[in-house]
Write a structure and sequence with these properties.
Blueprint (H helix, E strand, L loop, with lengths): L1 H18 L3 E6 L3 H9 L12 E2 L8 E5 L7 H10 L5 E5 L1 H5 L20 E3 L6 H16 L4 H28 L1
Parallel strand pairs: 1-2, 1-3, 3-4, 4-5
Bound molecules: iron/sulfur cluster.
Length: 178
């Protein structure tokens, strides 16, 4: 019980550090990118939330910000970039085009990035206001602190499964030796 409480507090401290040091990979394809630029500027100053460093390598990022329209041909590239980001990672869908395909009702546009990658927070709007993006960032930070991001949940699930397998294996080996 004591050890569990200590590791729980350590996990909370790590989550606290992570939520205030997000490194963004901006996958920006269309007009929403202008709003992203204003978010980075001095008026909205995303640095106040600890998320001001754009990184154009998935190896150095932990938040994928998908900004703008994604076509069917771009979808495999987006998926590959998502796969290349180390765990734990988070995804924010910026604007209606990324979230649902927006007003594009045609065969070239992906009707939402959640067809290829999991999304933690969706931002509505065409384009969304920078204030909405800041709101989304705060929502994401809450999720990170609660260990409730998609990839955080997957890591936890894998850990539990590995523990169960270990217990099962241990149990069967003691049965055999008895
Ligand atoms: S949501 Fe609107 S502003 Fe953003 S990429 Fe689509 S059309 Fe452009």
């Amino acid at each position: 019980m004591g050890l569990e409480a200590t590791t729980g507090r350590l996990a909370d401290a790590v989550a606290w550090a992570r939520k205030y040091s997000l490194f963004t990979y901006p996958f920006a394809t269309a007009c929403c990118a202008m709003e992203y630029m204003s978010l980075m500027g001095p008026r909205y100053d995303v640095a106040r939330y600890g998320a001001e460093f754009p990184r154009f390598s998935p190896r150095q990022a932990d938040m994928l910000l998908v900004v703008g329209t994604i076509t069917e041909r771009q979808a495999p590239v987006l998926k590959r970039i998502y796969d290349q980001i180390c765990e734990p990672k988070w995804v924010v869908s910026f604007g209606v085009c990324a979230s649902s395909g927006g007003f594009y009702q045609n065969y070239t546009t992906l009707p939402g990035i959640d067809h290829v990658i999991p999304v933690d927070v969706y931002i509505p709007g065409c384009p969304p206001r920078p204030e909405q993006v800041l709101d989304a960032l705060v929502m994401l930070q809450d999720k990170i602190q609660r260990h409730d991001g998609y990839s955080q949940r997957m890591i936890e699930l894998e850990k539990r499964e590995a523990q169960m397998k270990k217990k099962k294996k241990h149990g069967s080996s003691t049965e055999t030796s008895a």
